[in-house]
Amino acid sequence: MKKINVVGTSGSGKSTFSRMLATRLGYPYLEMDAMFWKSNWQESSDEEFFAKLDSTLSQERWVLDGNYNRTVDIKWAGVDHVIWIDYPFSRTIYQAIKRAFIRSITKTELWDKTGNVETFRKSFFSRDSVILWTLKTYNRNRVRYIEMFNDPKYRHIKFVRLKSPKMAKKFINELDL
């Protein structure tokens, strides 16, 4: 296990899991959102994003946190494991709401040197809300990942589906190092 992509709906816990996994393995933790978002919530163009992702993934070992379906051809070309954090909808939406609330109160910068912080208004009363995004993408992501896990074109990848925090903790604790 050298190149790992952790996927899951926003709010599922993929970042927390990814950081724990990277720490346990001693691998770099790579966050796709940090590669994509620029200052003042400006999005990278696909050209910029793909180049940055391709360059970053040239490392020998990593744990990559993030979905961005349009990047699958880049990130899964050399990946050996994809771990899907597939917790129940009720837990995922609860985590998304809790995280948005805490971030909007603390005004914590999400990615270094971007100045990007979540606001209460953006998180709860905007069509750009991460909570709304979670509601809209939860089922769609589940269907997509089930299809991808069964697609013969990805047979070179070991897929792991973790359905609970208990399974996630067990997975990390039982790793052979």
Automatic annotation (TrEMBL):
Transmembrane stretches, start-end: none
SUPFAM superfamilies: P-loop containing nucleoside triphosphate hydrolases
Pfam assignment, any one: SKI
InterPro entries: Cytidylate_Kinase-2, P-loop_NTPase, Shikimate/glucono_kinase
PANTHER family referenced in this protein's UniProt entry, alphabetically: TOXIN, YALI0E33011P
The protein's name in its UniProt record: DNA topology modulation protein
Organism expressing this protein natively: Psychrobacter alimentarius
Upper lineage: Bacteria, Pseudomonadati, Pseudomonadota, Gammaproteobacteria, Moraxellales
